[in-house]
């Protein structure tokens, strides 16, 4: 038998392992002492001793195995402790790496945010550069036009002061005055002759904006959306009573009162690839016909209870104005129709403000003034007025027109009608955009013919034509020659409107001369606004129809709105009042975009009424 004992090497054991080995050694020592005691007893049988000795040997062997198991367990424990230390080191390393990853993620997010911010700033800078470039282009165009207007006004001033002594006295007075010139500037050599441009709509042009929204024939004369075949119709043709046409003056015949206010007119130089428009070309174009108008003191605007209101300060474009909402026929929930209705009402109010400012207070119509109007443009102006005012009850052509002209309220609306009808038929049609280039003129005319030939039910074909026409107008409005072309066309249309309005303005004597001059400046603002509205109409890709109610027809509350009578509309209709004059047209919108055709009545016609 082998008994265990502690050795010096056992000092390096673990405390529990060392204690276990110490107890094992003591146990073996006790077993060995027990065996020795049994062998000393003489009465113990030999067989028993042999069996007892065998059991003791097995017991000692078991203690040895237990000690070995404890040693193995201690070794594994040491390895586990070492592994634990390594695991802790790995955990610390992982934590460090995790913190580094989080730091990298944060830096990545910061870099990504910085990149996004820089990209947004870059896009914003690009948009701003484009915006500033466009502003620069527009400012340059506006500067060129304003410079041309200044030159025209200087030429106008010198033309009006053609006497050298009068000019010297005026210059001396202006030099001594501390008051800045309001609307009048000096310079430019005089001497260029007057040749107004009278390019009205050609016979055969339609009054419908797109020339494709026609129903033809006659209506019930109640101001419905259909074109009327009698007075108030929008169909063109040779001039005769009962057909709505723009005023067409005659260049060789003009009134003395208008002659001094017409600047020199020069032909439009069409752009070509060989000779692009330059600044020098712009300076040689025809006059703009006006600039910033003079400020006028309030004089008290005369108007009825339902008419558009306007203030008398500044130009028509600067005046605050309101329009009666009763003219709107569109559904209030239809934002597109309401927007167009407000657009047209604003323009109608602008024209009304101009007419009420300059034509309400006029002297009593004298025989020479009547004869002067009748002789204007070889009688063309008087024929134009009679065509609007003619009724079946007139014994002499023009009796109704004279009655309207003699009444201040009616006169204002009559002159508003003269202006609006001419603008609708001459500026709001494709013919108002002629003379840009031969190619575009030919294509615009061809598109107009194609639109007239297309059946109203073929919306896709109509829309393709409208889209192409909108692109052409966009090119004429935003192209490199847009500013020069706009200046030329606005001047051309302004000359026509001046020829129409000049006979109704005071003769150029004393302070009346300044009023007449200011009226022409304000008329230029109206012409410019009409041109810009015409561009919007063409580029909207919609079709607009204008309906003028005939004089003498029974009033209909559904399609007409009285502008001079506060009485309830249904009562007026029940009492069978009749239309004395249609001042503003009814407007209908047609939209061929999409799968269905949409037709909307957006404005009623504004009318003056008379008892039956």
Ends distance: 151 Å
State the assembly state of the protein chains: single chain
Proportion of residues in extended strands: 5-15%
Number of domains: 2
What's the total number of strands?
A: 8
H/E element order: HHHHHEEHHHHHHHHHEEHEEEE
Question: If you average the pLDDT, what whole number results?
Answer: 74
How large, in whole angstroms, is the Cα Rg?
Answer: 50 Å
Descriptive notes:
Residues 70-149 form a coiled coil. It comes from Thermothielavioides terrestris. With 612 residues, the chain is mostly helical. It has two domains: 8-126; 198-271 and 289-610, no CATH class. It is 53% helix and 6% strand. The chain contains 15 helices and eight strands. Strands 3-6-7 form a three-stranded antiparallel β-sheet, covered by helices on one side. A hairpin with a 6-residue loop joins strand 6 and strand 7 (598-603). Helix 13 (482-501) crosses helix 14.
Keywords:
single chain; 612 residues; mainly alpha; 2 domains; 3-stranded mixed sheet; 53% helix; 6% strand
Q: Outline of this structure?
A:
A three-stranded antiparallel beta sheet has the order 3-6-7, covered by helices on one side. Helices cover 53% and strands 6% of the residues.
Secondary structure blueprint with pairings:
Blueprint: H1 15-40, H2 46-160, H3 164-176, H4 256-259, H5 279-283, E1 309-310, E2 321-322, H6 335-358, H7 367-375, H8 380-389, H9 399-406, H10 408-426, H11 438-453, H12 459-478, H13 482-501, H14 511-539, E3 543-547, E4 560-562, H15 569-574, E5 578-584, E6 586-591, E7 598-603, E8 605-610
Parallel strand pairs: 4-8
Antiparallel strand pairs: 1-2, 3-6, 5-8, 6-7
